[in-house]
Amino acid sequence: RSIRAENACRDRLEKTIILFTKVLLDFLDQHPFSFTPLIQRSLEFAVSYVFTEAGEGIVFERFIVQCMNLIKMIVKNYAYKPSKNIEDSSPETLEAHKIKTAFFTYPTLMEICRRLVTHYFLLTKEELMMWEEDPESFTVEETGGDSWKYSLRPCTEVLFIDIFHEYNQTLTPVLLEMVHSLQGSTNVEDTSAVLIKDAVYNAVGLAAYELFDSVDFDQWFKNQLLAELQVSHNRYKPIRRRVIWLIGQWISVKFKSDLRPVLYEAIRNLLQDQDLVVSISKLIHVTSCVFNSLIYSCFFLFQYLESMFTLLFQLLQEVTQCDTKMHVLHVLSCVIERVNMQIRPYVGCLVQYLPLLWKQSEEHNMLRCAILTTLIHLVQGLGADSKNLYPFLLPVIQLSTDVSQPPHVYLLEDGLELWLVTLENSPCLTPELLRIFQNMSALLELSSENLKNCFKIINAYVFLGSSEFLQMYAADLCRSFCELLKDITTEGQVQVLKVVENVLKVNPVLGPQMFQPLLPSVFRGIIEGERFPVVMSTYLGIMGRVLLQNARFFSLLLSQMVCELGQELDQILGNMIEMWVDRMDNITQPERRKLSALALLSLLPSLNSVIQDKFCGIISISVEALHDVMTEDPETGTYKDCMLMSHFEEPKVTEDEEPPTEQDKRKKMVGFR
Q1: Which of 196, 335, 577, 596 has its CA 20 to 30 A from that of 364?
Q2: Which helix (H) or strand (E) holds 640?
Q3: What pTM was computed for the model?
Q4: Any idea what DSSP says for residue 184?
Q5: Quick check: is 241 in a domain?
Q6: Domain for residue 188, yes or no?
Q7: Residue 210 belongs to what H/E stretch?
Q8: Where is this region: Disordered (predicted)?
Q9: pLDDT by residue (tens digit) across 541-560?
Q10: Does residue 631 sit in helix, strand or coil?
């Protein structure tokens, strides 16, 4: 009973102490200058308990965290930092800075740095035990699990980063001295020495950007780190894990290109490490960074592509926790994205496994997001061959973009992206692809930040199979657009109009009839002189296609406007031509300028006096448009229309460019019409 009472008393005391420290932190945060008289005493209090023997045996973890947060907030506080021009700084700022400078002397900073590294950075017995008993959980927690976020380790690392950044000139020699003392191999039987080296390497990784000019990382990698990666002894695994993490920290700071093949080889070997923590740590800490920095040099990557992809896939099957699988999928996605079509021979196993993983992750939406991202890159890599994935792919898109299904909250953004790339790479419109569009009506009603992707998807359907698509969905789509245009931004309005313009481009006969309810507002916008140039340009593009490609429908539309506006036909036509000529400069795209000129020129054969009166204006803008599209042929010295295309012209794709998608090819074919 006395022990329980003592524990209860201790708990109450700890809660009271934490409450007081929280009040102190809130006071500093809200009233930094009022806190100035307390800076000296607060720093003395926190440093003495956390970084000297005074706190040994009496401090507890939450108290240490609060003290470190107090030190960090004082060090980083912008109110205490003078301007570069001292005269621009307030007296309060200078006073606070003076107190800070007086406290953080060289001995104090050196002791804080050494104690952070050699005491707080050390792996604890509990962490080492967790490593042995549940390596995957250890890796997940150590790299950002929920409990990790509120534990001591991240707090110490953040404090180290902030203090090192603030006082790097003082602390750089201290840290370099610690590194130099650890040169050469470490006795694997000396656990303490292994853990100290792990902690020092951790510090060098955290301070990578500050040490840029002080550490020759390339030489260090060649002369020591690479050799340490090859030490296979079980007790050396903390160093293997830390070294590959350290490389991940430095790879974007300083690393020569001629070392890349050696690094790839090391990564491949580590993927076969028998210790799961080392394998996973390699993935989490370095691979994505390495691939983002180095995969652009695909010559090196292709040498290791098959073995790396196979080993990554094996690891994906081996690990069990969602967080770990997400990391592995992220790396696989990076590889697929960088090598694009070159991945095709190696993805069979992944394609077979993903449906099973999707089913197993029914309760884990974040893992499903990672699967969606992998599928996006997979579809882009497979191109038209991605149609073989449709039995799995299309139900995934259906679920992810169905707003009546609860998972859409997590999956919608990636699901829309997957839907779009699937359409862009589809060789033809299938009934199943057509059926998924039933989800679009509800998505348009959301009017969310995903609206832009929705319009891209609609455009992709238009180019993929306009006749079948429009016959099934044009009426619903037109109603949705009419509702959207009542309350939408200018950018959204342009996106809607571009869909209509593409429909008219692909299907000039049926398009105007199917979107007829939208066209009077376009006509009215032209004759009333729409004030936003980008909207006016789109209006003129739409009306130009109607006039040029479907003159009969234009006549019907003109008659409808006579009824709606209660004006004479010639007056309406004259106003439209006059405004068109006057606002031609709103059109910046050469294609639209040429279209407008051709549309207005198509009116000239008419004997209508109103059109004849506008002859000079029409000819003037036509000549301007002609100048815009004419370029000199360097071989013949003659001028030609740069927008004329031939069926025999094949697009030239350089090594750095991605090959054209199926949609790119469809758009080009439309341009031939």
Answers
A1: 335
A2: strand 639-641
A3: 0.79
A4: S
A5: no
A6: no
A7: none
A8: 650-673
A9: 999 999 999 999 999 999 99
A10: strand
